[in-house]
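User: Before I run my own analysis I want an independent prediction to cross-check against. Here's the chain; please return only the structure tokens and, at the end, one sentence I can use as a sanity check.
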Amino acid sequence: MGDMTGQVALVTGGVRGIGRSICDRLAKLGVVLAAGYSRDSDAVKQFCADYPDGSVHQGNIGVNADCERVIDEVLQRHGRLDILVNNAGITVDRTVRKMTPQDWDRVVQVNLSGAFYLSRAILQHMLDRGTGRIINISSIIGEAGNIGQANYAAAKSGLFGLTMSLAQETARKGITVNSVAPGYVSTEMVAAVPKEALDRVIAKIPVGRLGEPDEIARVVEFIADPDSAFITGQIYSVNGGQHM
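Assistant: Structure tokens:
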């Protein structure tokens, strides 16, 4: 592993679930943490208690002005930003026949446009410094689709196009852009799925279980490593073999 001491990472949705596991892994490598969140909660307070040298930033990543403000806050607080992990996302599940235009717009705005807004807002800083890591957290749903999740699938699939295009634009500038596509992971979002439906999902996973947030974070840690500078424009599927 390369030396990451003193680097700064912004992880959206970083106070719980996969985002929190990503923060925990990076912190062990000496990375200073900035976590984005949308609503105040006990998880935010716990993050602040665990990482007093870090920072938390509230905002709606579906709003460009919020994204620009958060990036500015991180730079003012920490003086630099080396790693951006676009992790936060939402679901509003309905079949296309029942999905409203508002359902579609909200999910695409947060899950896809938010990654663009934040990447665009930090890009000049990374270009000026000649280094940077942008990591987009997509989903197996973006690779395979799913009934009742056309909006989520479209947004998460769109992250692949954003990842590959931005990777090509920045490949000679010291910046890498990659995507991680988790399968079904033991998080609050998955816990909300009815047990019978979840049992059917698990039955389709070759390893026979849900993933753990730390198993996703491990891949993010690898991509964020300074020694991973030759890896860009890639999609890492982490799904227990569910989608091959």
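Sanity check: The first helix runs from residue 17 to 28.
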